[in-house]
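Now read this:
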Amino acid sequence: MVKNQKLIIFLIFMITLAARLSFTLTSNTFDSESYFVMRQVEHIRATGLPLYNDPLSYGGREYQFLPFFHYLLAGISFILPLDFVYRVIPQLFASSLVIFVYLFVKEFTKDILAALFSSFISGFIPVFFASTLGLSPLSFIMPMIVLLLYLLLKADSPAHTYLFIAGSVILALTHYYAALLVTGFFVYIALRKVDDLDIKKEELELILFSAFFTFFVLLTISKRAFLMHGIAFIWQNIPKQILNNYFADFSIINAVYQVGPILFLATVYIIYRESFITKRKPTTLLISFALTTMAILYFKLIPITVGLSFLSVVLVLLFGEFFILFLEFVEKTKVSQYKNLLIIALIILFIGTSVLPSIVLANASLEMSPSSQFLQAMEYLKRISPADAVVMASPEDGHIITKVANRSVVMDTNFIQVRSIDQRYNDIRSVYRINSDINTIRILQTYNVTFLIITDRAKEEFNIERVPFAQNRNCFREVWRNPPVYKVECHLE
């Protein structure tokens, strides 16, 4: 029996949080999507409502999204400083994953050591660690999903039942990823039926409630977008030219690296063993979610980083069973007297294959964040440009421009409910690539563009080294050097 369990899990939580804060507190910027969250939080603080009608995005458009995460951050910001909320609170959410993993694995395996080890692993899943250093709703969603899985295991308790209902409602109001949980539940029911195994009445009722409420919310919020885009709604109306950048092909090699090779290989064995031998309820539940996530990744229905994050957490929950089998195997061998040393060796191996890749991916993620020079350029643009100025830039830079410069953009990365999205993206791409001033100016006039920005992100996205229009200094006057910001000074009659 492991003593001081609460102290150990608290230390794991603090180590995870400290590792995350070492990145967020030393970085001057956030990733692009975080700036959209900031605008929503600050609008809620000012008006009590999300910014559903945005005059700056695409020159004016309507959003459809689930606002619980934004309301949560806005509510906390009335108690704590706003910058503290942005940098620390999402990391507290993400770090809480270690607590819920501990609870689930402890309930699943009845082994405290396995639960503690799995908890520590969950704090340093490379892909999840790196993708939640900003204001990502995923930092809140992932712990919530693990908590709901734990509560489902204890569905015979009235207190846990009420908590499951409350958690399901919160998750459904947070993000459409709640549909992944519901889909996993249905796969779980199907697998139990195929194996002719019973499902508790309480479990079935909770699953049906979760499914009904989630799909009701999603249909309500997404009805107009679905009618507008049809089947393209599933892929978020992303322009065809960049669709593969958002939904990359599912690669086993890439998955092994971003999940962690030890975790991946160990849980593959557990899935095989549990699928054909023991067929226990918790294992079937986890395998259902693993299969669901892999299928969704294969059909490119969610971004690769999000899918791998979900898959990684499921594998961590299964790893607890592998840890027990590993110790049982050691006990039967001549090296049983070195069991503690083997556990230490396993921890060191995990550090090398998961903790270090987490740090590497986190650094790479921060390098993709906007530079301080870009933010300074946007502050300057805000001072020198009229309030009705329109800026053309890479869609990835759109949210940063609307938040920092408070100016309208031709395009950002919220593609839902925007008509002719492919044409708009092609026009932007043409401006950065074509060597024709007349065509460039014609496109700029179509969108009333008054300023253009050339960031490293734009050069990478459009695969260019130099921008043709920048050579025409009569029509495009440079007002900021790094990154180059140009004012449009020519018009076609």
